[in-house]
Amino acid sequence: MFAMWAAARSNTYLSFVMKIAVIGTGYVGLVTGSCLADMGMDVTCVDVDTKKIANLHKGILPIYEPGLEDIVERNTKAGRLKFTTTLGEAVVGAEAVFIAVGTPPGEDGSADLRYVLGVAKEIGEKITDYLVVITKSTVPVGTAAKVDAEIKAALQARNAEIAYDVASNPEFLKEGAAIEDFTKPDRIVCGVNSDRAKEVMARLYKPFTLNGHPVYFMDVPSAEMTKYAANAMLATKISFMNEVANLCEKLGADINMVRKGIGSDPRIGNRFIYPGIGYGGSCFPKDVKALVRTGRESGYELRILQSVEDVNEDQKAVLFNKIKAHYGDLKGKHFAMWGLSFKPDTNDMREAPALVICEQLIAVGATVTAYDPVSMPEAKHMIGDKINYAEDAYAALEGADALLLVTEWREFRVPDWYRLKKALKQPVVFDGRNIYSGPEMAELGFYYSGIGVANCAPKS
Questions:
Q1: What is the pTM of this model?
Q2: I need a labelling partner for 199 at 20 to 30 A (CA). Which of 140, 241, 246, 293 fits?
């Protein structure tokens, strides 16, 4: 009786526990695999980096993400989350496999699909039963078709006829809030080309839909485009606000007031309209460049997005220009820098404005001592000994001519102003994220320079 019932479930593509494979243990892959395991699924994460897999077996994570370490530890101990370097071991018996490997940008801005297509080829070589192959990496429109071609060619080389589907399931994870984003998503986008693939994806995300989180099924190219369009829109809002902030400074307007005024309009909203020193990270810069490149290859110039990218690159120089305008010659000047990562709650320094600012200051003979709660090991890898590193925020201030606020970590929001003022050679603050109030700083005896607001001199 039990065998007959199990066979019946198998015939409807069901199993007792969904077995899932995730290829790639970077940011997207590790979060995806861990959170699915936390929902009770049997997940195996695969990576070619033997050291990374060995560290994961020891509980050492390759990334910093709040809450992730606990989830990995809990599900590893429960046996629901496993790690291996062998793709075939993970794919056999799986109902779905996520491709979550890197797609680094090429020199022309296009996404490098070598790793995605290499994984697709290996899946075709190892697959033994029906499988839904899901692209989770951010990939250009048309990538699923290329993945399909790689799998098909590998099966033909084996003289094997095995059914499979290729689906698209783009990620919408914010670094620093990825666990919340995955478990309580605004939306889940699934691009499918068959009812069978749709059924597998529906079961995969049933734990989330039970809590009312929406799943949008659509064709595969539309799903691929949705990811790029979403990031491009958010990047556009950031660059737009930075342009307005720069104009506010010239006209004597206050961008903080402007932001509140326009953010109250529900058609605009108050998210992603904070001015600053440019966006960074692994997604926005890469995706904007890739979408511009895709448009160009299709014979269509995405002029707005090209401007978004240009404005962002210029914005990374705004803080340096303010420093130079204030001091003139910067040779021999020493600066304290608070924050190195491109945003709080992550150690990611890819395309971080801090990298540009450090290079600019070093080039004119200035020196920097930086402090970041999480990303200093990564900074040492990327910047090396070109700058100095402090053990804490206040140690970074000692002997500095000014403080540069680059990343708005929570611990920087309400500092000990007396201690800060005492440590600096001069009470000068350049606020790249507008987390302080210029008038309040002036009352405390500081010279303050923010983004899109008037400079404030200390009250005598």
A1: 0.88
A2: 140
